[in-house]
Amino acid sequence: MNLPAVRAIYRFEMARTFRTLTQSIVSPVLSTSLYFIVFGTAIGSRMGEIGGTSYGAFIIPGLIMLSLLNESISNASFGIYLPKWSGTIYELLSAPVSPLEAVLGYVGAASTKSVMLGLLILLTARFFVPYSILHPFWMVAFLLLTAVTFSSFGFIIGLWADDFQKLQVIPLMVVTPLTFLGGAFYSIGMLPPFWQKVALFNPVVYLISGFRWSFYGQSDVNVVLSAGMTVAFLLVCAVAIAWIFRTGYKLRS
Amino acid sequence: MTEQATPTPHAVSVRGISKTYKGGFQALKSIDLDIRRGEIFALLGPNGAGKTTLISIICGIVKPSAGTVSADGHDVLRDYRLTRAKIGLVPQELSTDAFETVWAAVRFSRGLFGRARDDRHIEKVLRDLSLWEKKDAKIMTLSGGMKRRVLIAKALAHEPSILFLDEPTAGVDVELRHDMWEMVRRLRATGVTVILTTHYIEEAEEMADRVGVITRGELILVEDKRALMRKLGKKQLSISLKSPIQALPQGLDEYALELADDGATITYTFDAQGEDTGIAVLLRKLGDRGVDFKDLHTLESSLEDIFVSLVRGTR
Ligand SMILES: Nc1ncnc2c1ncn2[C@@H]1O[C@H](COP(=O)(O)OP(=O)(O)O)[C@@H](O)[C@H]1O
Ligand SMILES: [Mg+2]
Q1: B1 in a structural domain
Q2: What pLDDT does residue A30 have?
Q3: Do B64 and B183 share a domain, yes or no?
Q4: Are residues B195 and B262 in the same domain?
Q5: Keywords assigned by UniProt (chain B) (predicted)?
Q6: Ligand 1 site: residues with CB under 6 angstroms?
Q7: What's the order of all strands across the beta sheet hosting B87-90?
């Protein structure tokens, strides 16, 4: 195991984060605060409770997941896309670094950053609405698992993309709609029966549902299923990354 | 594992390496090449000859279509951890990070290649490359020449024993070029094998122990530099005449003679390898025909002349 390399990549990526502190931390926190003000406080005050939870508190897990997904993907995809674009990838390709080590460095840093962000949003939410966390251990576990899974997914996008547009098309066209439709702002049970069935094909539903369960003990789908789906997606990503490195796909001509 | 049994394997050993890029273009055609330990080897060839492709295959950036490469006796694909830790690469393109400081970038490289932190070594590398004053500068604020130095520092950060320099002096100023040659000599003195590609013949002539000439994906020649110049070098004798003549005298057709436009100099080209240069007889014959000379001197052809004639020969 080339641990110095994992450390070097991790540090390099974290340094990039802190260099662009406004963009990478402040702006997601700001935009989430806006969501709380608009949905939680303004609109939420006119909404009833959902399963015994006030609307403002109900949307917290969903909002955190929204940021977590977006940030994990954009961080990890950008982290590996940037050296491809600038040409500095030659160094990684010529270094005694295995795919696993590269992934640990890049995905590790992207996950760290989005977990930090998720916790920061959780703190921010305190200023707007009171909430409780029923299962703190599972809350952190879901946070970590989701961060790692979607950072891996972002890493794949970054490897695959060969221009900036491709880099943004999946987060924008696929992930954002899936998160908005994934029950961040409502319970799946509020949908008509047909759309409830359709929603079960949306992987984000499982993430948000499981995460919300760790807060309030109530979920749209069984929490074991939620965790299982997330792990399954992580495995799919891991296999895809292994395949990309083994074939040199889009990395080595 | 038989290679490992031999006491000192070559620094780099290339066997039957071919590369066909995805579009179907064949950039390398079955290259065989051995780089000796501790030598400075210059890979010389025009643009598009395949120099970068060959280096990239050895360093693990490009996949070969056929053939094998070993470094220090280890296969570069199977034992990539071993071989890559020994190899440093300064790429042709000025690909650097923008926002990193020089220090952070060089430190990153050392870690990436698996070495424990060693600030003293990095300081030495930066000082040797006149980068020490710039260690806290962001790379994007540096000039092109300084960026090139940063790339060299990054390549040396993990103390490689085999260093590849891909067109190190393309587009750099004279000062940096001389610094670089100086650095290469210093490295060689510490036992580092240096492989550089160039299309500046001057560079190969100045630096290399051996020269390989590559053109259109084929290695057409590998030779000790001095032997090459001796073998292929033509010599010329320049004869300055006492008084100008209108035309070359009759009866000297067997000699390759040329008369300068002003009629005051005759140039005689002869093979440096030849047993008998024929100079004595030629001078006597000229004297017999009433052509007197006031001065003589010989010129040796440079590696450049040799190179041009070689590459032309394959067209
Ligand atoms: N990634 C690539 N895909 C297709 N062709 C390539 C690629 N890289 C290089 N080539 C072609 O291979 C040939 C050799 O290129 P290169 O090795 O860069 O030559 P040199 O370094 O000697 O100038 C050139 O004709 C170049 O266009
Ligand atoms: Mg080149």
Answers
A1: no
A2: 86
A3: yes
A4: no
A5: ATP-binding, Nucleotide-binding, Transport
A6: A 253; B 21, 23, 25, 27, 45, 47-53
A7: B87-90, B162-166, B193-198, B40-44, B210-215, B218-224
